[in-house]
Amino acid sequence: MKMSKLFVQTLREFPSDAEVISHKMLVRAGYIRKLTSGVYNYLPLMWRVLKKVENIVREEMDKAGAQELLMPFVQPKELWEESGRWEVYGKELMRLKDRHNREMCLGPTHEEIITSIARDGLKSYKQLPVNLYQIQSKFRDEVRPRFGLLRGREFIMKDAYSFDTSEEGLKKEYENMAKAYSRIFKRCGLNTKMVQSDSGAIGGSVSHEFMVITDTDAGENDVFYCDSCDYAANSNHAISNLPETDIVGKYEKAEIINTPNTHSIEELSDFLKIPSTIIVKTLVYIVDKKPVLALIRADKQVEETKLMNAVGGVDIRIATAGEIEEMMGANGFDAAKGFIGPNGLKEYNGYPVTVVADNTVKEMKNFVIGINQEDKHGVGYNWGSEVELPEVVTDIRLVEAGELCPQCGKPLKVTRGIEVGNIFQLGTKYSKPMNAVFTDIDGKTKPYVMGCYGIGISRTAAAAVEAHYDEFGIKWPLAIAPYHAIVIPVSTKDELQMKVANDIYVTLKKHGVEAVIDDRDERPGVKFKDAELIGFPYIITVGKSINEGLVEFKIRETNEKSQMKPEDAAEIVVTAVHNIK
Ligand code: ATP
Ligand code: MG
After folding, report:
1. In order of start, what are the domains of the chain with their CATH numbers?
2. If residue 566 lies in a helix (H) or strand (E), which one and from where to where?
3. What is the distance in angstroms between the CA of the first residue and the CA of the last residue of the chain?
4. Residue among 157, 253, 171 nearest 204 (CA)
5. What is the mean pLDDT of residues 522-548?
6. Using a 6 Å cutoff on CB, does residue 83 contact ligand 1?
7. Confidence at residue 330, expressed as pLDDT on a 0 to 100 scale
C-alpha cells in the first residue's frame, strides 16, 4: 500500500472529548471517527485491526471445536418474553417497532435467539454437546458511553453458546473455553488475568472475566488478587477475611443519647470516642423501584452489586434524602443529615422496606446505631432486643486491599482491569423457560445445560492500545497491527533512496509482509511522526546512509534503532511475520 493512497487522516492534536489513551490515539491516528454518541466508523486501518482480532478469535474458537454462524442484529420481542428478559433488561435494550407495530430490539446479546435455534435442531443427546458462536455487532444503550471503543453503544462481540446434556459436560466446555481465551488474548499481545465475577443480567452461577490489567482510568473494574495464591476476583464478587477487631461496645445499658452534629460516621465516633467498628451504619437504596436498607459495620463499605443480588434486583441506586423522608411517613426528619436507622422506615412506592444486613454486623454487641431522630443515636443496642436482626444476613461488603485472601490468608492487593472477555455457566437459565429440551439417553426430556462466552472484539483492540503506546503513538503488537511495516524514503526526489525503498517494499510484499511505502512528498519529520503515531511495528528508513549501503531499522515496541543492510532489515521483518502464531 502506498501511503499517498492509504485512507488515513492523522490529526495534530488529541480530540478534546477523549479521556483515555486508546480513544485519544485511535482518533488522532485516523483509525476511528465518531458518528454519534457511542457509535463509531471503523476506518480502513481500524477495520484491518478488527479483522485480525476476529481472525485470531475465529481460529482459536474453531480449534476448540466451536462452529461459527451468524444471527440477525434485529430480534423480535416474543423471544425475549419467553426468557422473561423483555421486562427486566432495562434501558440498555434498544427497543423499536416495525411498520406493523411489531416490537423488536437491537441485539445486546443473543441467548434468546441461539436457544431458539438449538431447540429447533438439537433433539437428541446424540447431537450434543455443541458450541455455536458468531462475530456480530451488538447494540446496548449504555448509560455512559465513553472511552471510545472501550464502552461504545454499538460494538463488535464474539459470542459463543454451548449446549450440553449435563453439568459435567458444561464444566468441561467451560474449561475448554477458558483455555481458548487465554490463547486468544496472548496471541493479541495482551496479558490477561482470569478473575471470578458476578453473573449480572445474563445470570447463571459461575462466571469469570478476562481482565487486561492497567493502572489507568480505562480500567473500569477493580480486581482484588493475591500474590501468594491464584485468587483473583472482580470487586463485585470478591470476598475476604477480616482481621480480628473490637466489635463489642463498652455501654452497660441500652439507651438513647444526644449526639449533636454527628452527621458522619467519623463525627459520631469522634464525639463518642469509640472505634467505628462498634457502629452499625444504615444506608438506603432503591432497587428496581423498591426500598432496600443495608446495614453494615461502619468502617466498611457496601458493594452495590452484591446488595442488588441479595434482593434479586437488576438495577440499584442510593435513595435521595427526599425518598428517605417519604419512607419515614409523618415523622418529619431531615434525612440529608444522617441519623438513619433500620427501625421505623416503613414503605416506599407501595413496597415495604427490605432490610439486608452484612455479615459484619451479626456478631456485634452493645453497638451504636441510628434511630431516625436528629442529633440522637441508640447506644448499647443488641440484636433481638432493641433492634431485630434482619432476615437476610449475607455478604454485601466491598473488599479493601490489605484484607485477607479467602483462600490463603495473605493480604489482598487491588488493581484496575479492562474486561475484554467473559465466560458464564448459565445452566438451564434460558433452556428451562424457553422449553429448549432434548431427549436424553434414559429417554427423559431435559433442558440443555448451557454456557455462554463473550469477547469484545472492538474493546480488545482498544485495550491493546491501552497496553502498548508511548507519547508518540501506538505500538501495535505485530499480530494485530493494521500493517506490519512501513518503508520510508527520506527524500522522494533521491533516486537511489526511492529505488532501495521500493525494492525493500516489493521484497516484503513478496514474502507475505503487509507493508506500506511512504511515497509522499512530505518533510521527513511528518513521515516519521505519522509512522510512530499509526504504530507500525517496524519502520525502515532509507536516507543518506544508503550511500554507504545502510538503512535505519526501528522496532516500534522498544524504539530501538540500528543501521543495517536493506536485505537484513527485510529479513528480520519477514521472519517475525512468519513467526506470528
Ligand atoms: P461491562 O461490565 O464492561 O459492561 P458486560 O459484563 O456487560 O461488560 P458482556 O455482556 O458479558 O459484558 O459482554 C461480553 C463482552 O463484550 C465483554 O467482556 C466486553 O469485552 C464486551 N463489551 C460489553 N459491553 C461493551 C461495550 N459497551 N462496548 C464495547 N465492548 C463491550
Ligand atoms: Mg455491560
Report:
1. 42-237+416-466 (3.30.930.10), 255-394 (3.90.960.10), 483-579 (3.40.50.800)
2. helix 566-578
3. 24
4. 171
5. 97
6. no
7. 64
Residue nearest (by alpha carbon) to ligand 1 atom 19? 456
Task: Give residue-wise pLDDT tens across range 138-169.
Answer: 999 999 899 999 999 999 999 999 999 999 99
Residue nearest to atom 2 of ligand 1 (CA): 419
Q: Average model confidence (pLDDT) for the chain?
A: 95
In 66-153, beta strands by DSSP E: 67-68, 74-76, 95-97, 103-106, 130-139
Instruction: Please check the confidence at residue 199 and state whether its pLDDT lies above 90.
Output: no
Q: Which atom of ligand 1 is nearest to the CA of 220?
A: 3
Task: With beta carbons less than 8 A apart as the criterion, state whether 454 and 419 touch.
Answer: no
For ligand 1, whether the C-beta of 208 sits within 6 Å is no
Write a three-state SS string for 248-308.
Answer: ECCCCCCEEEECCCCCCHHHHHHHHCCCHHHEEEEEEEEECCEEEEEEEECCCCECHHHHH
Atom of ligand 1 nearest to the CA of 151: 28
**CA of 460, closest atom in ligand 1:** 20
Pairing relationship of beta strands 95-97 and 413-427 according to DSSP bridges: unpaired
Contacts of 273 (CB under 8 A, 6+ apart): none
Which numbered ligand comes closest to the C-alpha of 422?
Answer: 1
Per-residue pLDDT of 446-477, as tens digits, reads 999 999 999 999 999 999 999 999 999 999 99
Say which DSSP state 410 is in.
S
Query: In whole angstroms, how far apart are CA 98 and each of 138, 247, 437?
Result: 19, 61, 31
Residues 296 and 342: beta-carbon distance below 8 Å? no
Strand 221-225 versus strand 413-427 pairing type: antiparallel
In contact, 575 and 513? CB cutoff 8 Å = no
Instruction: Please list the residues that pair with 509 across neighbouring strands.
Output: none
* 541 ligand 1 Cβ < 6 A: no
Could you tell me the pLDDT band of residue 326, with boundaries at 50, 70 and 90?
A: confident
On whether the CB atoms of residues 40 and 103 are closer than 8 A, the answer is no
> What grid cell was written down for 383?
440484636
CB 12 within 8 A of CB 124: no
Query: In the Cβ-directed half-sphere of 193, how many Cα atoms lie within 13 Å?
Result: 25
Decide: 420 in ligand 1 pocket, CB within 6 A: yes
- What residues form DSSP beta bridges with 473? 470
| Ligand approaching nearest to the C-alpha of 417 | 1
Q: Which amino acid is at 41?
A: N
Digit-coded pLDDT (tens) for 541-579: 999 999 999 999 999 999 999 999 999 999 999 999 999
522: number of Cβ within 10 Å? 16
Nearest CA to ligand 1 atom 16: 456
Helix (H, G, I), strand (E, B) or coil at 479: helix
User: What is the C-alpha to C-alpha distance for residues 572 and 555, in angstroms, rounded to an integer?
Assistant: 10
**DSSP H or E stretch at residue 195:** strand 192-196
Q: Which three cell numbers stand for residue 448?
A: 440443555
Q: Which ligand gives the minimal distance to the CA of 221?
A: 1
Query: What nine digits make up the cell of 340?
Result: 438513619
Q: Answer whether 422 contacts ligand 1 (Cβ < 6 A).
A: yes
Give 461's DSSP letter: H
Contact indicator for 258, 277 with CB cutoff of 8 Å: no
